[in-house]
Amino acid sequence: MTTLTQEATVVGITVPTGLFIAGQWRDSQGQSRFDVHDPATGAVIAHIADATTHDALDALDAAAAAQNSWGSTSPRTRAEILRMAYDLIISHREDIAAITTAEMGRPLDQSLGEVRYGAEFFRWFAEQTAHLHGNFGSSPNGDFDIITTKVPVGPSLLITPWNFPLAMGTRKIGAALAAGCTTIIKPAAQTPLTMAFLVRLLAEAGVPDGVVNFVPTSSAATQSETLMNDSRLRKVSFTGSTGVGVRLLQQAAPNIMRSSMELGGNGPFVILEDADIDAAVDGAMVAKFRNGGQSCVAANRIIVHRAIAQEFLDKFVQRTKDLHVASGTTPGADIGPLIDQRQRDRVQRLVNDAVQDGATILAGGHPISGNGYFYAPTVVTDVPESSAIATEEIFGPVAVVITADSDDEAIRIANDTPFGLVAFVYATDVTRAFDAAKQIEAGMVGVNRGLVSEPGAPFGGMKASGLGREGGHIGIDEYLETKYIALGRTRP
Ligand code: SIN
Asked: Which domain of life is it from (predicted)?
């Protein structure tokens, strides 16, 4: 029986604000809380329990205790719970979208889009659950049989980001639960409320006690270090910056812990000479400005062939100037605020440095005064390839447009980065586009398409952008071990 010990009312919706451990909502052992802000106003909208390392270890105790029974439930039982959770998300979609907009800032219709996207991971993984099969065959010399089976990795720490607070959680939780792993969820400190609401729905869907544990904290580094020192934890899955990913991989090493890392990007958006320019402008608007540019699959650098650069820029700059920047609850808003003052200062520093390096601002280029952390949608060009704005992930509504004189030059520029998460290629000649897509070093390439994210497709990067894939047919493998049994045919 779950008892809510604490709740808050956020935009008229009741949201749990406690920790969830072993099937119980409770306060943190330190009785402390941290503030959650609305980035459109800077106002505090809730105080959420701040898990201590003792709470995190309680969550691991619960996850470890529940592992055997959850790992041995029938696939159909797990599938039905996930499917029920999908239905619950869909029936609460308006509330979830409103909570996300309140704590993350993006326009309400885009939050509703994230709810549908996020829910689909549960439906997708529910459908995968009944298809977890091993193999049976003979050893090459015929002496014995080779049987393989899949077993859950074990208790998993899932660390989720603030930019898609629901979907980045369901992408991990869906795969983990489908595989039979128990979980400890650490949401981003900026956006814990969406996940708290989801955890309550998961309990309502029938997830047994201890299978999903929820430990928001303001001390993320200390929490992950404590948990990862404990060999009962068998898996860490993280979405966030490459710097934090490196630290987590170092912490994972002593216990040889399975690790999935969805890290930073520096996505090139390549427009070849024969591209349909209007289609490229449409694609670039999505790839750049979806989620206000706060996405690891955002187009960071738009690399356009010199022969069509002016026409592209004229159209793209106009569309950028037409974007309506406003709080997420304003009808017709296209772009909400950045997540916090720190991120807005960072974006402004990148733009200022680019101007120092010789860049020209064609639109925006400044914060918007008043409450909240709004930033004007921006286009900069004449950017040297070495400028920080072209080498670092921007994570804001700022488009960098670079020109190239050939396909080869465009591909060279696209690959001139330690990152390799996503790329986009626009060309009319499909063979030419496919050739470029093959040469670009990225885990995902959108061809004549500005969005690649899809639950049924494997999401993940190469190089400094990460390890492993989430979603698609292989997403569940991140939470499974292959076990091989050699079956002798003769009696000893
Ligand atoms: C991300 O920004 O982390 C990914 C967003 C997506 O799945 O599209």
From this structure: Bacteria
